[in-house]
Structure formats: C-alpha cells, structure tokens
Amino acid sequence: MKFTSSALLAACLFLSSNSVEGTQCNADNCLRALFPTQSPAAVSSALAFCATYTTTINTATTGFPTRATGGCGTATARYSSACSCKPTTTTTPTCTPTPANNLVKNGGFECGLAPWVAGDVANTKHSLSSPGDGSATAYEFDQTGTPSEDSNMHPASVNQDVSGLTVGAAYTLSFSVYFDKCTQQEGFVGVMLNHQPVFTFDSCDDGQQAVGQFYRVTVPFTAAANPENVRFEFLVGEPNAVIKLDNVAVTPA
Questions:
Q1: Cα(36)–Cα(70) distance, rounded to whole angstroms?
Q2: Among 149, 161, 244, which residue's Cα sits nearest to residue 201?
Q3: pLDDT, tens digit (0-9, with 9 covering 90-100), for 183-227
Q4: Which DSSP symbol is given to 178?
Q5: Distance between CA 243 and CA 212 in Å, rounded?
C-alpha cells in the first residue's frame, strides 16, 4: 500500500494523539467520580474497567461505568486521564476503632454509614463528604431550605447503639465537629444519651474554633445502661447551613 506524504502525516498525528491520551493525569471531577474514596467496591470495579480500557486506543462513547458519566461525560480522553491517575492498589479504609478502646463502631464514617442511622427531616439531607478530620470522610448535615416549623421538636439526627459499657462506670464521649459559619441562626449540635439531652455545642462556642475547621469536643458521662444510644441532633434556624461530624469515640474515662 502506498501513502501520500499528507496521508501518512495525518495517520501519524492520529496515532500520536491517541497514544498519549492516557499519559496526562488530571485530578478533576472525572477522577473523583471514577475512583470515589469512600467506596472500596467502586474503586475495585474502576480498576477492572481501566485494566481493559487502556490496553487499546478507544474511541467508543458507550460502556462507561454508570456512576462516572456525571463527572466524565462520554469524552474518551477524560476516562484515559482518570485511568492514568488510578491507584496502584485498592486501599480498603480501616474500620478498626480509633483509639483501640473506642466502643463506637465506624466512628470515623470510613466504612459507609452503618451501624449509624440517619434521620432527615424536611429541607435537610445527609451525606458522607470529603475530607474528614484527618481522614477521608465525615458525616455531613445540610440544611437545604427553610427549616420546618417542627424541626426544633423533631430535628435531623444520626445515632447508634453503643454496647460494651459497664453500668455505673465513667466514660468520655468525644467527637470532631465543623460548622460552615457562626451566626445567631446557624444553630447547634445537641448530644443525647439514651434519649436524654446531655450537651450542646453552638457554632460560635469556644471562640468559633469549629467554624471552617474541625474542632474536638469531649463530654464526660456515666453509663446508665448497656447498650446506650448515642444520638447527635442538628438544630438549625436558617437555610444553607452545613455541619459535619467525625471521629466519634466512647472510651473509658
């Protein structure tokens, strides 16, 4: 077969542009959609997709992982870029309690939500967002609209039953909290043990140290039951408020 010089040049340019497509690693929304840090299963499936996708020059605009299309669209270059950024190994987030004597399970929200139970109310939502307090994820509460009239009586919450307690023994409940701003209506986090209020932390407390960053809070208590329900309530008086919770621990005092 004989090529003209112009045809040969065009063929070379086509092969060159496709062969380097995967060498440029862009840390963009496509990468985050394809490799979500909070889902080891999704990362594993993405690695499997990339293992076959990058073996040849791809021009197909279908067959992409469904969860990634929102961030990547159908542009082959974006998938090639994300695959070139892929982790070398699949890292499974640790679910081991930190510290070792922590009685709370998944206190850092690194392994999904369970056994925590979230309760949203009107105009609120919850998610696991990144980054956490020195970790990949945290629990996030969002007041997406005007608070409902009964939200003070029945606020949004997240809770779990903590077992392994010795009734009558002293313990410390500790957690990291984050507020997006300090205003009169931003609200507070309320702590309940066995459905009884024991502590509140306002967005402006402690010199606003929890505004725009995580701040560590400790609450001493004496175990009244085993198991004991630990519940965080989010009481907010204005829309567009964000509160985050992370690294919840119950340890012997």
A1: 13
A2: 244
A3: 888 889 999 999 999 999 999 999 999 999 999 999 999 999 999
A4: E
A5: 10
